[in-house]
Amino acid sequence: MLTTFILEDNAKQRFYYQQIVRTQIMIDQLDMQLAFVTATPQKIKHYLQHQPHTHGLFLLDIEIGNQLTAGLDLAEWIRNHFVDARIIFLTTHTEMAFLTFERKIAPLDYLLKDNGAPKVEQQLRQDLKIAQQRYQQTILHTKQKFGYRIGQRYYEIPFTQFYFLETAPGNTGKLIIHADHQQAEFIGRLSEQAEKYPHLFLAHRSILLNPQTITSFDAAKRIAYFPDQQKCVVAFRKVGALNRQLR
């Protein structure tokens, strides 16, 4: 689901944007929820810090109170932490558009309030549909590939080649990925990956496996086998659930 946030310090405009979003979600049955409507950037930031896997759509005013670039600063932080975030600016400041390029925010749109409410509403409704389409494409891509980061480099493995993840021995903050003719270690927690990729199966407190690439499962020995002679153990209490999933 695409989680939507509105940052606007004008109460009347805040309510207006909220109504547009809610109406469009209902009319087009968009896979969205309106999570936050606020005049405080820190509230959005605090939410995101506790929800690191959020797929977000952000409608941000740039000037908040006496802070000329509060919305812009929040957008930059969001982009640095959520690379697939969809950001729409709603502002009267035409002169700040170049700053979105300078800060590499890459917004979905930059809507000028001075164009009038009907024009802004028309553009915003169109942007909501575009955001939904791009979100669906992202989800499809996520289901097709497993992504992980080592240092500053990002890697992807098709799930047809992905076998299982295990927690590194003696270090719950590191994971080892087992895939087709490859193995790599990266920083992360198994619980986060299980939440991000719900189609994977938590076979053990330290193992998250891909049922699609299992070649055989010995329920008596509680061992799942994969190509390349790779294998992993399955917890006793998980045997029945895995058997049912493999039928």
Automatic annotation (TrEMBL):
Lineage of origin: Bacteria, Bacillati, Bacillota, Bacilli, Lactobacillales
One GO MF term: phosphorelay response regulator activity
Any Pfam family hit: Response_reg
Reported function: Required for high-level post-exponential phase expression of a series of secreted proteins.
Keywords of the record: Activator, Cytoplasm, Phosphoprotein, Two-component regulatory system
Residue ranges occupied by any HTH LytTR-type domain in the UniProt entry: 146-247
Domain of life, per lineage: Bacteria
Domain Response regulatory: 3-128
SUPFAM superfamilies: CheY-like (SSF52172)
Listed SMART domains: LytTR, REC
Cross-referenced InterPro entries: CheY-like_superfamily (IPR011006), LytR-like (IPR046947), LytTR_DNA-bd_dom (IPR007492), Sig_transdc_resp-reg_receiver (IPR001789)
Sites bearing 4-aspartylphosphate, chain numbering: D61
Protein name per UniProt: Response regulator of the competence regulon ComE
